[in-house]
UniProtKB/TrEMBL annotation:
The lineage of its organism: Bacteria, Pseudomonadati, Bacteroidota, Cytophagia, Cytophagales. Keywords: ATP-binding, Cytoplasm, DNA damage, DNA excision, DNA repair, DNA-binding, Excision nuclease, Metal-binding, Nucleotide-binding, Repeat, Zinc, Zinc-finger. This is UvrABC system protein A. One of its GO terms (cellular component) is cytoplasm. The keyword Coiled coil does not apply. It is found in: Cytoplasm. The keyword Protein biosynthesis does not apply. It comes from Pontibacter akesuensis.
Length: 827
């Protein structure tokens, strides 16, 4: 590769071997992804797409054409990138791995049919086809209904007092009431005293009479006006409460509206298919006594156990069938063999606890990437380069060996692997290392080393070398003493059954365990919900992703807090979700530091003279922004058949503001120039302005000095978003008594960045707060005050507290799968 200049890359020349495991290392923001994905993968994709018809190209998520002079010897590439925050498409484990297709084939061709039923096609075993879907629930498995009780929760109220809670609020509800007045219903009698016939009509009718409406008239005045045929204010259309609920549910684009009407809907298992989503004919076909839905709900590990005897030809099927349909036995064996072999790859990657039915939005990005990896392992491609993004994310050290074996398998099959990784065990396993740095952003973008791992030891400037070759010993740490305990009892969720757990307060706790053992269920789900509930704090809304509507089975959840809440005043989750989904949000707006900057501009003499307020300096407000691009700084150019390109706005040239606004300067810089500064530069520039400076100090401390203040949220990685959130918390006045919960905060972080993160988390604890972190990195676990190890295995083989105590204590546990790795590190 010659002359790579994508993002921060500094005109890089590089030679890397094919048919090898090449690992790209470097601190967060150094340019690893820009090299591996932004340049190598993007170029491979571009070349491939040239051979594809323009029409088909539209179906690809096309990368931008990379800034690079030349690349030679590049094989076709397959990217297995982690989707950061972006909602994944609605699919299931079975469809992503294509295992569901095979299972349907198995049922169609080798299933046990009831006597007299003819063979049905594989499609009829999918709830997503007309042939397969249960006709009652259309393949959803649940039916939604409304009842008088669900829509009228308090029947002592009158209609005027809004007895019909399911009707729209504000004007919409008044309108319906006025229509009822015209229709002669008594809106001033308690609901329960109205005749049942009237109540049923008002709630459930499909009729939509259009009637004259006289808002503000009493019922008597209305009746008189009707008799006189007085001109009405308008004609109103009646809509029963049920109609309103279902219509809104089906048609609204607003998640809030959807959520509001959902509270009036009851969902029950479909009575026809019992929630199994398929036609009775499809469900009547069994394999090993399971119908296809039952099989799809079992953990993969169990399915493999059921199918193995068939694959090996040792299963005894009905003798009659053997003689009458010998071909069926052969087909069963073939398909079972294939299924068992494919599932084995998933088991090896530590995913045996998943079921085929599990929907992908409920999987972690790491689990999803490993599912895709497993699918590739079985695709028998040859001569391809796989580009992977931190495949170890979410993996317990005991699962990492299997990952390495899987990567080795792809390589042996004749492929190349380019992997962006932070995990030292994976890095040590590389055939070739490319270390990018030395630091992030402008201070990075150079190749510090390219060669076999041992050679990196000589490279002074490398931050990776220090961690890779220095001894294993963890930094000495004396655990702090808890100030109290938060106790949970009767916790039931996913694989946790009636669990007791206690979390120490005022210290730093890590929760460990193999992937799928139940850490997230306990910490990110139950603990977060119970504490938020107890504080009366609203939960962050997830319905954007439409997940609540997707769920086919209601999740069983239970548990309560028995002690410890008196010393928790606030709950904060710091996750890796984007700080905004549009280029309109950025670090400066998110942290609040931009508010102060805008006030400084509004206070300049020129701004005062022209009566510009702080709002004038926002690119989201019409007054000050460039109208041509609406403050975006660029305009989108749609190209038929090609990815749309963003071009700088021809009017403001990317400045985002109109010319008048840009005339105002603060210490010789206009507002656009300030947004273009890096945190480091701004830290010097605003040294005399305490509110701005304070925010910048913390941003530097969390290692984000290289980011530009106005860098759009959409360009930030998950790790960067997380650190911005953390910095925003840290700059608040330290109140103490806050509970911070983080799920795998070290994902995407170089060991050097992890160290910075730990300093910040420890600062939070020193200030009187509690920090609870789900974690796999043993250095972090060793440096915490308390460890709770969940396990021992995954899925139903986990879900218990295996060991709890100070790191040194847990390291001695005989049952814990974490203990050996912790012991190794603690020396
Ligand atoms: P790494 O993978 O090492 O964490 P990246 O390659 O993602 O680093 O980023 C390298 C630099 O390029 C960083 O300064 C980052 O902010 C910047 N960058 C990343 N994505 C974009 C983008 N889409 N547009 C502009 N700059 C970007
Ligand atoms: P960990 O965080 O330790 O990797 P999880 O708490 O995510 O483990 O998962 C524990 C078990 O619960 C696994 O068997 C997993 O498949 C199951 N599980 C987790 N989340 C969901 C969900 N949203 N729906 C169904 N099952 C789930
Ligand atoms: Zn049904
Ligand atoms: Zn513009």
């Amino acid at each position: 590769m010659r002359g790579a200049r994508e993002h921060n890359l500094k005109n890089i020349d590089l030679s890397i071997p094919r048919d090898a495991l090449v690992v790209f290392t470097g601190v967060s923001g150094s340019g690893k992804s820009s090299l591996a994905f932004g340049t190598l993968y993007a170029e491979a994709q571009r070349r491939y797409l040239e051979s594809v018809s323009p029409y088909a190209r539209r179906l690809f998520h096309q990368m931008a054409v990379p800034e690079v002079d030349a690349i030679e010897g590049l094989p076709p590439a397959v990217a297995l990138q982690q989707q950061r925050g972006t909602p994944t498409t609605r699919s299931s484990v079975g469809s992503v791995t294509t295992l569901s297709n095979l299972v349907r084939m198995l049922y169609s061709r080798a299933g046990d049919y009831p006597p007299g039923q003819s063979i049905i096609y594989a499609e009829a075993f999918s709830p997503n086809t007309a042939e397969g879907a249960c006709p009652t629930c259309h393949g959803l498995g649940r039916i939604y209904e409304v009842t008088e009780q669900s829509m009228v929760p308090d029947d002592s109220l009158t209609i005027r007092e809004r007895a019909i809670a399911a009707w729209p609020t504000a004007w919409g509800g008044q309108n319906q009431r006025d229509i009822l007045v015209t229709l002669g219903y008594d809106v001033d009698r308690p609901w329960r005293e109205l005749p049942q016939k009237d109540r049923d009509w008002i709630l459930f009718t499909d009729e939509q009479p259009v009637v004259p409406v006289y808002p503000g008239y009493t019922p008597e005045q209305t009746q008189r006006a009707l008799k006189r045929k007085e001109e009405p204010s308008y004609m109103g259309t009646f809509s029963s409460a049920r109609r309103h609920v279902f219509h809104t549910f089906a048609n609204t684009n607003s998640p809030q509206m959807k959520k509001r009407v959902m509270q009036f809907m009851l969902s029950t298992d479909c009575p026809n298919c019992q929630g199994k989503r398929l036609r009775p004919e499809s469900l009547s076909v069994k394999f090993a006594a399971y119908d296809i839905t039952e099989l799809s709900r079992l953990p993969l590990k169990k399915i493999a156990a059921i199918l193995t005897p068939f694959a090996e030809g040792t299963a005894s099927r009905r003798e009659q069938q053997e003689t009458e349909h010998p071909e069926q036995t052969i087909v069963a064996q073939r398909i079972a063999e294939d299924l068992v072999a494919r599932i084995k790859v998933l088991l090896d990657l530590g995913l045996g606890y998943l079921s085929l039915e599990r929907s992908t939005p409920t999987l972690s990005p790491g689990e999803l990437q490993r599912l895709r990896l497993a699918t590739q392992l079985y695709s028998h491609l040859f001569g391809v380069v796989y580009v992977l993004d931190e495949p170890s994310a979410g993996l317990h050290p005991s699962d990492t060996v299997a990952l390495l074996t899987a990567l080795e398998g792809l390589k042996k099959a004749g492929n190349s692997l380019f992997v962006v990784e932070h995990n030292l065990d994976v890095i040590r396993h590389a055939d070739w290392l490319v270390d990018v740095g030395p630091e992030a952003g402008e201070k990075g973008g150079e190749v510090l080393y390219s060669g076999p791992p041992e050679g990196l030891q000589q490279v002074e400037a490398s931050k990776t070398a220090k961690y890779l070759f220095d001894g294993h010993e963890a930094p000495g740490h004396t655990p702090r003493t808890p100030t109290g305990w938060l106790q949970l009892s009767g916790v039931t969720r996913n694989n946790l059954h009636n669990l007791e757990a206690e979390f120490p307060l005022g210290v730093f706790t890590t929760v460990t365990g193999v992937s799928g053992s139940g850490k997230s269920s306990l910490v990110s789900q139950v603990l977060v919900e119970l504490v938020a509930d107890s504080l009366g704090q609203p939960l962050p809304t997830e319905e954007e992703e439409g997940e609540a509507l997707e769920r086919t089975e209601p999740i069983q959840t239970d548990g309560h807090i028995t002690a410890g809440m008196e010393s928790i005043k606030r709950l904060v989750r710091v996750d890796q979700k984007p700080i905004g989904r549009t280029p309109r949000s950025n670090m400066a707006t998110y942290t609040g530091l931009f508010d102060h900057v805008r006030k400084l501009f509004a206070a300049t003499p020129l701004a005062k003279e022209r009566k510009y307020d702080a709002g004038r300096f926002s690119f989201n407000v019409a007054k000050g922004r460039c109208e041509n691009c609406q403050g975006e700084g660029f305009v989108m150019v749609e190209l038929l058949f090609l990815p749309s390109v963003y071009a700088p706005c021809p009017v403001c040239h990317g400045a985002r503001y109109n010319a008048k606004t840009l005339e105002v300067t603060y210490r010789d810089k206009n507002i656009a120039e300030v947004l273009a500064m890096t945190v480091d530069a701004a830290w010097e520039f605003f040294a005399e302005e305490p509110p701005v400076h304070r925010a910048l100090i913390v941003l530097r401390e969390v290692g984000l000095g290289y980011l530009r203040l106005g860098q759009p949220a959409t360009e930030l990685s998950g790790g960067e978003a997380q650190r911005i959130k953390l910095a925003t918390e840290l700059q608040r006045a330290q109140r103490g008594n806050t509970l911070y919960i983080l799920d795998e905060p070290t994902t995407g972080l170089h060991p050097a960045d992890v160290e910075k993160l730990l300093v910040q988390l420890n600062n939070l604890v020193e200030a009187g707060n509690t920090v609870i972190v789900v974690e796999h990195t043993m250095r972090v676990v060793a440096g915490s005050d308390w460890v709770i190890d969940i396990g021992p295995g995954a899925g139903e083989e986990g879900g218990k507290v295996v060991a709890a105590g100070a790191p040194a204590q847990v390291a001695q546990s005989m049952e814990s799968k974490t203990a050996p790795f912790l012991r190794h590190l603690l020396g």
